[in-house]
């Protein structure tokens, strides 16, 4: 069949709006051409004439702005897979990529993947979220899927594959921030003293006093440390990278018969590896307090002695490592954290709470917020506000000042 002849500009085509016997309002508008020259003419349905006119106006405006309507048959699954593999994987950390892939595979694509991208509506997305809530999934899980979907569809809008982002205004519950009760200054000091009897003992000073993330601390190398100037350069982080199948092309089913790449005889690309830090700001120099410098000097001497006794030593030159220089497993590191809290007779807490505690301690010491952000490697003030908590010492100080100001301190 020969292509239709294009006698006029697309901008000359106006929307067609009509009502059907069931009371619904329908709209159609020519927005582009298919490869065979026929029209791309999306069809929308709404409950009221006002709603359908608004949708048609949005389609018309985007078409006139140069929106690329090269096909109306691209599915949500095809687009989001392209976005993940081509736009996310080469440019974001493996941890971020794996997190996005998991949310797409487990929650989004099974429900929305087969839909045509240009037919996806806000209500379709809200039904997905409702089904996730009905399955007992947490607000945190649903909101995480929402963020991934909103980001992927946002790129479709940026690249003119969608008129509007239907996830941008979809209703979803905001997860509540977990209650964080940061450790007090004397509790931090007690934990650091107890840690002196543990392996890799300066690691906990860096967490509790300076707030280094787990991956940053475990990824430190001796070349990152300058004991002469008392500075530490955070350049890399240790991450567990998912193993890939080596027995076949990624687009085919694995020939080894194993579901996960970790069990493939020809696996590659995985394990505990040093990767780039989270953001540009995360790659930062830190000035160390003298007590941490002293701890690191002792730790270096002890590690050199350990290295001389070992028959084999890893080649990553890590400050904190296993008995043969190998990277520390993050699971083992978390177990050591909980053991430290128990030995110091402190309440149990997440490892990441050490970062909250460090930030709050610096706040209690009245360190300027700009310097706190620099030490922590934060780029946004709202991140600082989420981590820096008012601690008991500050509440007590405010109460004492009120006593003094009102003349009741000796009452």
TrEMBL record:
Residues 74-157 form the Core-binding (CB) domain. Keywords: DNA integration, DNA recombination, DNA-binding. Residues 178-400 form the Tyr recombinase domain. InterPro entries: CB (IPR044068), DNA_brk_join_enz (IPR011010), Integrase-like_cat_sf (IPR013762), Integrase_catalytic (IPR002104), Integrase_recombinase_N (IPR010998), Integrase_SAM-like_N (IPR004107), Tyrosine_recombinase_XerCD (IPR050090). Pfam families: Phage_int_SAM_3, Phage_integrase. Gene3D superfamilies: 1.10.150.130, Intergrase catalytic core. PANTHER family: INTA PROTEIN (PTHR30349:SF91), PHAGE INTEGRASE-RELATED (PTHR30349). This is Site-specific integrase. The lineage of its organism: Bacteria, Bacillati, Actinomycetota, Actinomycetes, Propionibacteriales.
